[in-house]
Design brief:
With 666 residues, the chain is of the alpha/beta class. It has 22 helices and 33 strands. Pfam families: ACAS_N (PF16177), AMP-binding (PF00501), AMP-binding_C (PF13193).
């Protein structure tokens, strides 16, 4: 599969001063002085990092001075995938690194929210106050019986209270998991039921786009449906007067973080679980992915220092929901000693300039968001520099979906002559495969490089690595932040099926990738059936459960048509009961059901009635073939009728694709 992008001149080139001050320059200078290693360019550094795995990760550990109870030994004890073992015998805790670079010169958190008594106003949390609240909350959790290995689940928005709750949970060695309060009950319970949390931390609601969303009744529902929950910490986020007394065994948040307590950080093994995040395959429940303290620490230290170029005292913002792995990655700013700049609310309310004003007023130096946000600003004619003083801003980050070349041009013309750091990674391993460094030029439409320590290739159909051809994104060597396991996944069955089925022993990520001759990279979209809406990935099975719960719907098929250079769209195809026709009323009910059960971002863009959903002989819905057909592949290449249970069903989809004029893509 060939896909070419016209050659272009760099859109941005670093100055000698920017190269000299970059953290990656600091790292390479240290390598020369402490290890006697010299590299001609970034490509040589990357090749060393993936060929000398022990050398690279041990060097990163020593350069960053990662705190641990024992001196570190070799980095990689077992290179099997899955099942790699990293830094055996080492004990540490994420919270030690997160609070290690605290400084009185800058706050730990700067935040703004649409909700609460301080709605619309900026509040600051000092490092000392953050430390005090984490210690007090941890003491409360211990008093409630939370111990190492227990799960603490949060139903919380992107606020300082959530940061405190996460750090407190990690400090006692318990396992953190969070869902955003804009998620529906079905989606939340599908996640939290799997992990059986001991404590639930929940906000009474949130405000978005000027509208309040009271979630108090939903908290009652969660408590009824989660029998493992012994205690509730109730956060009056929407209504400051809301009371914890309406719930059994509940403690008000203000009481949970009151007073002074010594900060006791539990030392845990490198591979002790830190958090559980969720992604989905195309069948079954959401995958409950477990990442380790040590793996996240080393990966996020690498990411923030070397690929985001965060310095102590920087002001780091990435617009994110707590459902998105970018919330976890934003927490990594603390590992670099940066100030977290949190925004909870609609980024375009009360007008399209809102998030840019927040960035200007809080002095953000690194501004990150999903690619869809920047494309929305471009289409809306937003003028960030006219709306805010962005003089301190030196970098813009993008992820969640491919950032097209015209968005690079828009950022440079309307935001400023900033470094554009487009990144691509995943919830699956809580990190990045592709990113940038401030010492390389930026080309429109490209990510600058493969990340250090990430042996990424673009595989063709025969499993051969290719340059300047679009192929499957694979990682052929382990990384420390790859999952420990999936929760309750016997013998790692779902884990292996998710990433290692196509190429045994090699991680297949599910993206289309082209590595350019100059070492850059272009992501074209998903190569599998996973839904990727505004950076939030979700398996199709969850949407099917919601849609097919309606009595009129017998069967359904959804595809997320994401491909670089095209407008993203997600059509839903439904098979209805005999005699039922799709009309506006039923379409509205389907959309409302998806919005209620999952979230507004997963509502389909269009709904079509079909006679049958194409299925294999084994009964599986043919999501990937239909997706490829709608992206332009010929019918004869996407499916073999002899392997189908109902090959006649393809005719409707072929006519649909032809009517839409889809050009060749994959």
């Amino acid at each position: 599969m060939n896909e070419t992008v016209p050659e272009s001149a760099p859109a941005w080139t670093p100055t000698p001063q920017q190269i000299e001050s970059a953290r990656i320059t600091e790292f390479t200078t240290w390598l020369a002085e402490a290890r006697g290693l010299a590299f001609d360019d970034y490509d040589a550094l990357w090749r060393w990092s993936v060929e000398d795995v022990n050398g690279f990760w041990c060097a990163l550990w020593d350069w960053a001075q990662i705190p641990s109870r024992q001196p570190r030994g070799a980095a990689l004890a077992d290179a099997a995938m899955p099942g790699a073992r990293w830094f055996p015998g080492v004990e540490l805790n994420y919270v030690e690194q997160a609070l290690r670079l605290a400084s009185d010169a800058s706050p730990a958190i700067v935040s703004r929210s649409e909700s609460g008594a301080l709605a619309g106003r900026t509040r600051e949390t000092s490092w000392a106050e953050l430390r005090r609240q984490v210690a007090a909350c941890a003491a409360t959790l211990r008093r409630l019986g939370v111990a190492r290995g227990d799960r603490v689940a949060a139903f919380m928005p992107n606020t300082p209270e959530t940061v405190v709750a996460f750090l407190a949970t990690a400090s006692v060695g318990a396992i953190w998991s969070v869902c955003s309060p804009d998620m529906g009950p079905l989606a939340v319970l599908d996640r939290f039921r799997q992990i059986e949390p001991k404590v639930l931390i929940a906000a009474d609601g949130y405000r978005y786009g000027g509208k309040p969303h009271d979630r108090r009744e939903l908290i009652h529902h969660l408590l009824r449906e989660l029998p493992s929950v012994e205690q509730l910490l109730f956060v009056a986020q929407l209504d400051p007067e809301a009371s914890a007394s309406e719930y059994p065994r509940a403690t008000a948040w203000r009481d949970a973080v009151a007073g002074d307590a010594p900060l006791q950080i539990e030392s845990v093994p490198f591979d002790h679980p830190l958090w559980i995040v969720y992604s989905s395959g195309t069948t079954g429940m959401p995958k409950a992915i477990v990442h380790s303290h040590g793996g996240v620490v080393v990966e996020h230290v690498k990411l923030t220092a070397l690929h985001l170029d965060l310095h102590p005292g920087d002001r780091f913002h990435w617009y994110a929901s707590t459902n998105w792995i970018m919330w976890n990655c934003q927490m990594a700013g603390l590992l670099a000693g940066a100030t977290l700049c949190l925004y909870d609310g609609n980024p375009a309310w009360p007008d399209a300039q809102a998030l840019w004003r927040f960035a200007g007023e809080t002095g953000v130096t690194f501004f990150g968001a999903g690619a869809a946000y920047f494309q929305g600003c471009l289409k809306a004619g937003v003028e960030p520099r006219a709306a805010a003083d962005l003089s301190r801003l030196r970098a813009v980050g993008s992820t969640g979906s491919p950032l097209p070349p015209e968005a690079y041009v828009w950022i440079l013309e309307h935001v400023g002559p900033v470094w554009i750091d487009a990144i691509s990674g995943g919830t699956d391993f809580a990190g990045c495969f592709l990113a940038g460094v401030p010492t390389l030029p930026v080309y429109p439409g490209e990510m600058q490089c493969r990340c250090l320590g990430a042996r990424v290739e673009a595989f063709d159909e025969a499993g051969r690595g290719r340059i300047d051809e679009v192929g499957e994104l694979v990682c052929t060597a382990p990384m420390p932040s790859m999952p420990l396991y999936f929760w309750r996944d016997e013998q790692n069955r779902r884990y292996r099926e998710s990433y290692f089925d196509m190429y045994p022993g090699i991680w297949r990520h599910g993206d289309w990738l082209r590595i350019t001759p100059t070492g850059g990279a272009v992501i074209y979209g998903r190569s599998d059936a996973t839904i990727n809406r505004h950076g939030i990935r979700m398996g199709t099975s969850e949407l099917y459960r919601a849609v097919e719960s309606l009595p009129e719907v017998l069967d359904s098929l959804v595809v997320d048509l994401e491909y670089l250079g095209r407008a993203s769209s997600m059509p839903l195809f439904v098979v209805l009961r005999p005699g039922v026709e799709l009309d506006d009323a039923l379409a509205q009910r389907i959309r409302a059901r998806v919005r209620e059960a999952l979230s507004a971002r997963h509502v389909p863009d269009e709904i079509h009635q079909v006679q049958a959903v194409p299925r294999t002989l084994s009964g599986k819905k043919m999501e990937v073939p239909i997706k490829r057909l709608l992206l332009g592949q010929p019918l004869e290449k996407i499916a073999n009728p002899d392997t189908m249970a109902n090959p006649e069903s393809l005719a409707w989809f072929a006519a649909f694709a032809q009517a839409r004029g889809q050009g060749g893509a994959a």
